[in-house]
Design goal:
Two copies of one chain form a homodimer. Chain A has 445 residues and is α+β, with helices and mostly antiparallel strands. In chain A, the strands form four sheets. Chain A has an eight-stranded mixed beta sheet with strand order 6-10-11-18-17-16-13-12, sandwiched between helices. A five-stranded mixed barrel of chain A has the order 1-2-3-5-4. In chain A, strands 7-9-8 form a three-stranded antiparallel beta sheet, with no helix packed on it. In chain A, strand 2 and strand 3 form a beta hairpin. In chain A, helix 4 crosses helix 12. Chain A is elongated. The two termini of chain A are 35 Å apart. In chain A, 51% of the residues are buried. The interface between A and B is large, with 97 and 97 residues. Strand 8 of chain A pairs antiparallel with strand 8 of chain B, so a sheet runs across the interface.
Chain lengths: 445, 445
């Protein structure tokens, strides 16, 4: 029976009573080979971690890095070995011999490898334990997102990514040849999640790809990303959504801390204290501008006024929140009407003009990770607002049906899964947090 | 504080000690209105179920079906009311008044509505509790799929759906305009899940859309579906995968039975006994042909020989399994080489020609719900086989890298989520099990 690398110490420390239990089998990839005085030390990598194999001359075949092997032997304590134990090999089988011309150094130092080289060699770079650890954290994020929402009575949905047109207007859409017509890849499940809320499910979430045909090639953009979408009925304002997201993020941070200790340590990262999430401030847009402007002045010795939540402002606001509230997490709400899509619920700040909205962004460690808000659920208000956004009611027949026949007050948000992963681990680019990232130039592997 | 419909009986039976606890609030959709001697009975629908509201003349506004309302009143036991209790309303607020020209009868009998009408009016038909129940079952399937695999040490992955070319060849692919080039929508995450297995994760799963540009318009085809993908390393043959799928299906059946009793009952469906899954037979392809042919002869009084696992054979084989093994679930393995993609692991049945493969299909209640098998992991065997499938090695550079540098024996399978949902509930068409199905003609809503 095969045992995992992580269990070798236990096998060595507690070999059992029968003599045959002394012999165990491991299987995995040859991560490192070191020769020392006629003895070969092999570090074997499996899904659980690493184990040192000790091969005497007799059992040593012509090993290459990354070959997949199965080894049988005696587990033994050795405080010099990684994990405090090793396997003294008695027999070894090569299951798949790796060619010796490895084009990417799997056991190399990631911090010394450029992003382009990592992505160009994705098939092999994903074998690097430090790189792989990003996606173990991401798996926990996805699981924790779903489990928290289920605990709050949300239902998971799966909606189509092929849509007749874009919800948010016609720009930045990828076109698909769909039999004898053209459709688009969905930018978000906006209409669908609103439909499902209004179906009576009330609380829904979706974990699915979303597409943006943006031409930017920056460390914060992906053309395809995993969108963690939430929508719920019977809210009063965006503040209900901010409360929900706080609970969600606290749970995600807690789960990553608990399940991914080694993965987080590999990146010298610190997961935010889940207990501090509740203390993250919510700041209206105008006030956020003032704070960002003041931070800019302090940081650069007299920066100009900041007029928008641009990437620079996102960084300043998070720095401010970290200093003043103990966590680099901040919710900015009440965005001006002109900054938000047509379906955003308007907010009158007292001038009778409803120039604001019940909307919010969540910024984490200098990056926007969420956009959300309450939606317009009133049919007449919806019809009235469309022309101001250059939209034609007749082109939005499904949206009309949704609102015309009874739609509860509702709202929602979406978290960019790769951005959250990036910021938890402190990765330089969001592309590092996508298994097979798509940007303007890259569609392979 | 709002309570849910399902909690009205408890509120009525145990009103608490203080007088103010007698008053509760509910919110939801007006599902049905009935007038009886000056009293109005409203059936209110929320995410938990239905509750009867009793309105005297004074509190009765001009209600329309599907309007969203909030009602406050006194819960009271009434054995004639659905669930044994009702709310005697003291105040009522309309949150969203539905227009009276409802184009689809939400509270109608689904069995009397044609599929086209249901799909044409999807925004509203999804409000029908029986239709909605399909997707509550589907949510459980997705959750149970993931939780079972996590319990077996699998890691969830999310891979790109935009690919440079199709893994299985160039047919049946949707093309996407990707900036200044064309890419395709992925038919399956085949290469990606094999890459992640080979990265050292060993065991991975993915829940994501998959695309097939098939022109068929049948009750068993969707052009976009949710693929429940599994891949694992260090297997001996497809039999390891069949064992895994049996455990997985048993867990899914168990969870649906436990969590979706009412949803299953709404369709008069019976979830298979989880304990019977282990008894599902595994039958080699040639033997399956013989069984199907014999069944055809018995059923139609002399049907001809069946030469392929076509839809008719799938039905016959499941009927046979149900009769002989107590469950309409059967695994057919050892498909001929010519029926399987290039990456399938060959199997020599004794004639020295390796004309068979370590592959399988899973048939459930007359429908193929899974295709899977062991994959070729040997680089040289891979290079040798490509030309026989009309494929050029140089066009498969990433696949080459995957196999050339150490790849463990591995295999996997994919379950069609909508097909499994369909067959658990006994739906006539797989389209009923897709929230927003895509077929050759349908891309809306």
């Amino acid at each position: 029976m095969r045992i995992l690398a992580k269990d070798i110490y236990r096998a060595a420390a507690d070999p059992g009573t029968e003599s045959e239990q002394r012999s165990v089998e491991v299987a995995g990839w040859v991560h490192r080979i070191r020769e020392l005085g006629g003895i070969t030390f092999v570090i074997l990598r499996d899904r659980s971690g690493m184990v040192q194999l000790v091969l005497s001359e007799a059992e040593k075949p012509n090993l290459t890095l990354e070959s997949v092997i199965r080894a049988r032997g005696t587990p033994a304590l050795n405080e010099k070995a990684p994990g405090g134990a090793e396997l003294r090999v008695t027999s070894l089988e090569i299951l798949s011999r790796a060619a010796p011309d490895l084009p990417y150094q799997v056991n190399g130092d990631v911090s010394k490898t450029g992003l382009e080289a990592i992505l160009d060699n994705r098939t092999l770079s994903l074998r690097n334990p430090k790189i792989r650890s990003i996606f173990k954290v991401q798996a926990t994020i996805i699981e924790a997102f779903a489990s928290y929402l289920r605990s709050q009575d949300f239902t998971e949905i799966k909606t189509s990514k092929l849509v007749a047109g874009g919800t948010e207007g016609g720009t930045e859409l990828f076109e698909v040849e769909y039999f004898d017509r053209k459709v688009c890849l969905a930018q978000s499940p906006q209409y669908y999640k609103e439909t499902m809320v209004s179906s009576g499910l009330e609380r829904v979430f979706e974990i699915a790809p979303a597409y943006r045909a943006e031409k930017h090639d920056t460390p914060r953009h992906l053309n395809e990303y995993v969108s963690l979408d939430v929508e719920m009925a019977f809210i009063e304002s965006e503040k209900d959504l901010i409360e929900l997201e706080k609970g969600l993020l606290a749970h995600i941070f807690e789960e990553v801390s608990r399940k991914n200790r080694d993965d987080v340590a590999a990146w010298n990262a610190t997961v935010p204290d889940p207990n501090l999430v509740a203390k993250a401030p919510t700041v209206p847009y105008d006030e956020a501008m003032t704070i960002a402007t003041a931070e800019a002045a302090n940081n650069k010795g007299g920066g100009g006024k900041i007029f928008d939540i641009n990437p620079e402002a996102e960084r300043f606001l998070c720095t401010w929140a970290g200093r003043e509230h103990g966590i680099e997490l901040i919710f900015v709400n009440q965005f001006p009407r002109r900054h938000r899509p047509f379906y955003t619920y308007p907010l009158d700040l007292g001038d009778g003009k409803a120039t604001s909205t019940m909307s919010f962004d969540c910024l984490f460690r200098g990056l926007e990770i969420t956009t959300g808000g309450r939606r317009q659920h009133d049919y007449n208000a919806f019809l009235e607002v469309l022309p101001r956004f250059g939209l034609k009611p007749e082109a939005m027949e499904n949206y009309q049906t949704l609102l015309k026949y009874g739609c509860p007050p509702h709202g929602g948000f979406a978290i960019g899964c790769e951005r959250l992963t990036q910021k938890i681990l402190g990765l330089a680019s969001v592309k590092e947090a996508s298994l097979f990232p798509r940007d303007r130039k890259r569609v392979e592997p």
